[in-house]
Amino acid sequence: MSTPSSWPLPPGSIRFVVPRPVIRQMTEHVLGKNLYPQGVGYYQRAAGHHMERPVHDDHLLIYCLEGSAVIGLLDTEVKPGNKASVKGPNSKNGLGAKNGPGMKNSPGMKNSISTKNELTVKAGDLVILPRGVAHWYRANRRTPWTIYWAHFDGLEADDIVRHVAAEQSHEPIILFHLGHIARIVGDFETLLEVRQLTFNLNAFINAGSLLRVILTNIAQLKPLARHQDTGGRFDLERVHSLMLESVHGHLDLQSLADAVNLSKFHFIKKYKEVTGTTPIDHFIRLKIERACHLLDVTHQSIGQVAIDTGYQDAYYFSRAFKKVMGVSPREYRKLRTGAYA
């Protein structure tokens, strides 16, 4: 794996490198080999934290909670016969750093900082440094960043990174604003607990699954975060609250559009960009979810369930139900009661 920084850990910070024997077991296990963490950590107000990584053979995920840092590409130039040298942002001339663990260079390899792709990482930002991208980063001196981080690899790691990076404008560094998402923070905290079970393979298989959840959640949240970051003021929570309040009756598109101060046309367009579906389709699915609940826990007739979910026509309700669930309401109730067993 890419070597984590040797930055001295202050109280409250965590750095855990997964033991090599465990990584070897993960690469050979059918449930572990597709995605697994190689190192995880939490750096709190990481004053003086900096890193230059000319060789990066896994993926690095960084989630910034507060403070800031700068990050950029490390240009690598090979000159046969020349002795290695590193020029980075922390050297005596302001451009370089002394070599340390994880920063050694092969003979004939020269590295220099690329400032044209330098990016600022702020609170709420998410960074992925993909495999093969030589890079450097440095915490802000006055307001150093607080971060969760994870080095990861696996047979599906490249595909998952590409999935998260869809429509990314900062290639090869993946950077976008996500905001403070309590769910992501909680998942990182759970991921860090794996360090207490150092040689428990099952714990690391579970950690790999959790890492997949974190990454796919990020991909799911990314479109909404992008709209909020650009001042779109698209209150999806407000829209969905209105839908839930009206699941037993009717709700027109104009009312939803008015709730977020958009025209119907722009509301439908933005809703689909954020969720991947139309507001009508989502509203229908909420109604059918409610219908499933009523069919599960009550003895109401199908006609009454239709009325309670805003459908006056039981036949139309049955068609909508089957379109979503794949079976009619009557068949669904039989399946749930074990009549087909």
Structure description:
The longest helix has 29 residues. α3 runs antiparallel to α4. About 9% of the residues have low confidence. The strands form two sheets. This protein has a six-stranded antiparallel β-sheet. A five-stranded mixed β-sheet has the order 3-9-5-7-6, with no helix packed on it. It folds into two domains: 216 residues, Regulatory protein AraC (Jelly Rolls, Sandwich), CATH 2.60.120.280; 102 residues, Homeodomain-like (Arc Repressor Mutant, subunit A, Orthogonal Bundle), CATH 1.10.10.60. It contains eleven helices and eleven strands. The protein is α+β, with helices and mostly antiparallel strands. The chain starts with 13 loop residues before the first strand and ends with a helix.
Features:
341 residues, alpha+beta, Arc Repressor Mutant, subunit A, six-stranded antiparallel sheet, 39% helix, elongated
Sequence-ordered SSE layout with sheet pairings:
Elements: E1 14-17, H1 20-28, E2 36-43, E3 50-53, E4 59-66, E5 68-78, E6 85-87, E7 109-122, E8 125-129, E9 135-139, E10 146-153, H2 157-164, E11 174-177, H3 182-192, H4 201-229, H5 236-245, H6 253-259, H7 264-275, H8 279-297, H9 302-308, H10 314-325, H11 329-337
Parallel strand pairs: 6-7
Antiparallel strand pairs: 1-2, 2-10, 3-9, 4-8, 4-10, 5-7, 5-9, 8-11
Helix pairs in contact: 2-4, 3-4, 6-7, 8-10, 8-11
